[in-house]
What we know:
Layout: H1 9-16, H2 20-23, H3 36-39, H4 44-50, E1 56-59, H5 66-76, E2 80-85, H6 91-108, E3 112-117, H7 124-135, E4 140-145, H8 149-152, H9 155-159, E5 162-165, H10 171-183, E6 193-194, H11 196-205, H12 210-227, E7 231-232, H13 234-241, H14 253-267, H15 271-283, H16 288-303, H17 309-324, H18 330-342, H19 348-362, H20 419-434
Parallel strand pairs: 1-4, 1-5, 2-3, 3-4, 6-7
Helix pairs in contact: 4-5, 6-7, 10-11, 10-12, 12-13, 14-15, 14-16, 15-18, 16-17, 16-18, 17-18
Amino acid sequence: MPDDLFSDEGDRRRQAAAPLAARLRPTTLDDVVGQEHLTGRDGILRAMAQAKLRSSIFYGPPGTGKTTVAQILCTAQQMAYVPLSAVATGIQEVRRIAEEAKSRWGMQGRGTVLFLDEIHRFAKNQQDVLLPFVEDGTFVLLGATTENPWVSLNNALISRCLLVEFHALGPKDMAKVLHRAWDYRLEWWHEGSLSPSVVDLIARRVGGDARMALTVMERVAMLADSRQVTEITESLLNEVWNDFTWYYDVQGDAHYDLASALIKSIRGSDPDAALYWMGRMLKGGEDPRFIMRRILVHAAEDIGLADIQALNVAHAAFFALDKVGLPEARIPMAEAVLYLALAPKSNSVVTALSAMDAALHRWPNAPVPDALKDKSYNPRAQEKYRYPHDQPDHFLPDHHVPLMMAGLELYQPSNQGDEPRYKGRLDAWRKARQKQ
């Protein structure tokens, strides 16, 4: 692999035939848009370009400039640039590059940048192979990922690298990227016109992904050529946009972010938002069973005993999905989402579990009282069990934990939904036990 980015005529021709996003790739930090917190005068990337390049993990949404910045920093430090994708490479390739990097230090006196795209795709044992080369300076590792590095990467690798977060581009920054591309349109399109609303629409629709924005613009121009028209219009954009509308990375952070948005909308009693996020996930190709598993859990976590029907409704929707499938199952799924969002909220079940964990930590081996033991194998137990159903109210104030745990209160009913009526009974029962 050549040391320089474009070291021969073949590379130049390849660059000329590359997609618009690659052809208009910034070549200096000043040209990078939307990452001023990193590229500004006091930004970490500016410091690395001017001083010493450190092994780093670039993380953030797609199309925010991670690959571009890696190339810019490598050029600024006059280092050899070796790009790899973790999807298509392995340990042997990394070791080969490390040997070449060592030779380069000896023969040329310059360092090597290993740019490892989608570094989260490396298994933990593959990540371990990188450690000695990063630590002894054999090469500078610049890893790129759209996932949370604290979840997807080894702690040992994180401790040896700087974490650099890239932000999604806002509409204003995205419009700047698109206007810059339009200024150079004669390099990728003919002399034509652009409807003023198109840039704003693209900027708002692409979710902060500059690469997607430029790809959309290029495809709209190609569609205009095929129709032999000279104006890029909103109508043409809408035709092209159908191919991009439901972009959704089922394996990436978008998967977890949208699931989080759905659940937090249910918890926040916002049925409109909850239904929207459910729709986004389904349109993006999410497994509907994953959605229903999350809804089942949160029927108990966020509603619980405030509305005991919530779990039943969620279970019924899951059953309907299993029996009829999509698209018909969208109806019971939507019913469950709306029911849960509209239901009274209580997290008393979750707080009771937390209290239970604390009690287990405090009393890990509390003995079972004699009265509660199984008499089939221990007929001579000293205490006799009293049967509550023999009493008029089907209640006895007997203790069901050892005396050292008397007064144990794990469940605290909320004042929401059905729980107040549980609270009255529970308070009376607890007072009766306190008198024993």
